[in-house]
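Sequence only, no structure available. Ideas?
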Amino acid sequence: MESGRNCPVIIKTFKKIRDKFSAMKLLTVLVLISLVLLVLGAGCTGTQSFMPGTPVTTPATPSQVTPAPTPVSDPLLLGTWTLKAMNIQGGTALTFPTGQQIFITFDNGTLNGYSGCNNYQAPYTLTGKVLPSGQGIMVGNMVVSNKVCESIARTETTYLQILGKATSYTVNGDTLTITDNLQNQLSFSR
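Reply:
I predicted one. Tokens follow.
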């Protein structure tokens, strides 16, 4: 019977031991989790160092290279041309400049000349388009000197406006005709 009395004591002791081991297991698990979080946290906050001059490699990706368009050129247009007439308002007003000689020179993407009073220069692009009035051309922003010549001011202004709005040109022998968006024309000869 003595051994029967000891059973509750043994059971109590066993429960105490079990509870201590559970607390130790829990403490061990918490310590391990803390260590893992510490290691992970240290890895996230570290700075990545690069050696100067060391190239960073990136994976090669196939790309499609589009060749640059070939600039359009027209050797017939190149050179210097002298203005002979301005056909304004679709042919209703024909002007023949008198006094100063007005000319234009085309040189592979740049045009320049003398407009009767001022010198001018602008980039130009041949578009390669065939239009009803000739071959396509676009004249960029024009730079013009700033002299005032009252006697030719109206002619010069009209000339520069038509030239600045040019949309097409034709070369027929020694005659160059430049047409703007309103069908005004400048006629030149060599």
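The longest helix spans residues 2-45.
Hope that gets you unstuck.
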